[in-house]
Amino acid sequence: MVRVAAAAAGPPRSVSTGTAATIARALRLAARFLEEHGMAAPRFDAELLLSHTLGLRRLDLYLQHDRRLAPAETALFKERIRRRAVGEPVQYILGEAHFRHLTLHVGPDVLIPRPETERLLDEILSWAAVSQRDDLVLLDVGTGSGAIALAWLQELPRARAVATDVSEAALAVAAVNAAEAGLAGRLELRAGDLLGPLRPGERFDAIAANLPYVALHERSSLPIEVRDHEPELALFGGRTGFEPTARLVTASPEWLAEGGLLACEIAPAQSALARGWVEATPGLRYIAAFRDHAGHERGFLAAQVALRP
Questions:
Q1: What percentage of residues in the chain have a pLDDT greater than 90?
Q2: Fewer beta carbons under 10 A from the terminal one: N or C of the chain?
């Protein structure tokens, strides 16, 4: 998670863009306002919020820099800047986030999809390519917005997926995203904790999970936009942060097809713990850790192996 400076204490004063401000002036004043309130990328945030408000590309803000904002556009932009100044994530303000080739609805009931999770999907898709099968079935545990399951289905046209989440509100968001992506027919959403919603005898070719992995004692170190706005249920994984993943690892061999893949995203500091836990679990073989774009170990891969009689 990217750390940002904390926003200034107390509610922000209203940002002033002037009467019938041009795009250039509105951007300049909004970026200055966000900088004063501790945002790490004030100009970038202002560009995203203004381009969305006006229905333009970011490039168009500079091609049309002398265009004047209508009163309704000014009011909406000012309100969005005010929300950003208190740390609300841009994705929640706009109600959408991008994940690979998908644009997903997001809100305070689901985590914002991140590049680290795209790396998790890269590993699963690479494994799928080696399998030389296009009818694979994925189990996405703790699906949230549905990002992993939907990207899997989008890139493997004959694959199917089951996705679970303990949050009914999160599943409602995932259902909207599945419908809008045209993928609802190949995705089954089930409510419940981890593998609890599964049915006796079910087997999956792969299990993927981006479970809560922040330790409770790390709460104060989180960026304000994460700590105060993203759902605690999807963030905190108990005393060490590894508890939900440990429970999944222990239970997963029963639900994987022989040779099936288990792929989990974790915190970099949990990598050695994860390997030890997998190696101590009957029916699993540790394959490898995988790294995020910054070079940190961000997750692990394991395979189901048949137990000796």
A1: 90
A2: C
Element (H, E) at 163: strand 160-165
Per-residue pLDDT for 7 more than 60? no
pLDDT in tens, 183-202: 999 999 999 999 999 999 99
Buried b or exposed e, range 152-170, using 16+ CB within 10 angstroms: bbbebeebbbbbbbbbeeb
User: Within 10 A of 307 (CB to CB), how many other CB atoms are there?
Assistant: 8
pTM: 0.90
Radius of gyration of the chain (CA): 21
Please state whether beta strands 256-265 and 160-165 pair in parallel, antiparallel, or not at all (unpaired).
unpaired
181 and 163 part of one domain: yes
Rounded to an integer, what distance in angstroms lies between the CA atom of residue 111 and that of residue 211?
11
Q: Which two tokens stand for residue 192?
A: 């419940």
Q: Are residues 144 and 169 in the same domain?
A: yes
